[in-house]
Amino acid sequence: MRLTYHVIIIVSILLSLQSVANADVQIWNAADDFARPGIPNGNRGWTQGEVDTGGVFHAYTTSQWLNPEETICRWYTLALPDALCNVSANDIYIDGGTLLVAPNTVTVHPGSGGAGTSGWDNDLRWTAPTEGNYLVDTLMYGATTINTNAIAYVLKNLDYNSPLAQAAIDGFVNTGGTTLTYGDTLHLLAGDTLDFVVNIGAVEQPDNVGIRVTITQVPEPSSGILMVAGLVGLIAHLRRKRNTPL
User: 15: helix, coil or strand?
Assistant: First the structure.
């Protein structure tokens, strides 16, 4: 009885330590972590950028506040592609009321190939800081009040040949249409990238896409849990030994 009591105390302590460890699990949110002016591109692993026709990623070089109220932050290199983030709590419509820049969303536009643009894909990139398992939750949707036409991808290490998810985005904001949703737990190595890419699609027309991404670190079983399993086995062994007749 005394042995069992002490083991229960030890198990309780170890489980408490495990709960503390789980409380330190990291969460990354593309909008919350969006680098405001004055913060370098790449904040908390998120890099706003574009992909050229050869499949090479280029980080955007310039950030600015898009409006006098400083509620919409923009990253770009040329005029397009670009990435916008609404840091307020309210919906904001721009471009004559045709584009919704929603809160908790990164709103992107790929290059159109016209004057002042690169014609390249837009890429919202996240880089894994350490090896481990990560839960990815993604929504990509048309962000315009006029019909959107774009191709959306979720890629690992910018591999277009084996997309984790792919969908043609069409329809009107807040009125349905085709969206891309993706959720899965992925094992990533340190330095692996997840790329949330938008292409102009088959027809060049309004192709702004809203992207919502949350990535959550999945805690690994700690040594404390393994010790608990060992102690349970020890209790069973000692009880069997005590009950074994000589």
Answer: helix
| Residue 60 shares a structural domain with residue 156 | yes
Number of compact structural domains in the chain: 2
Q: What contacts 7, CB < 8 A, 6 or more positions away?
A: 231, 234, 235
Output the six-digit token pair for 173: 């904001």
For 177-199, what is each residue's pLDDT tens digit?
789 999 999 999 999 999 999 99
In order, the DSSP letters of 83-132 are EEEE-SSS-EEETTTTEEE-BT-EEEE---SSTTB--PEEEEEEE-SSSE
Same domain, 172 and 231: no
**Domain identity same for 149 and 205:** yes
Q: Packing angle between helix 223-243 and helix 2-23, nearest 10 degrees?
A: 170
- Amino acid found at 144: T
Give the number of other CB atoms < 10 A from CB of residue 161. 6
pTM: 0.82
Q: Where are the beta strands (DSSP E) in the chain?
A: 27-29, 46-51, 57-59, 62-65, 72-76, 82-86, 92-94, 99-101, 106-109, 121-127, 132-142, 148-156, 165-171, 180-188, 193-199, 209-218
Q: Are residues 127 and 103 in the same domain?
A: yes
- Reply yes or no on whether the pLDDT at 58 is more than 90: yes
Residue 172 structural domain:
26-218
- Per-residue pLDDT, averaged over 210-222, amounts to 90
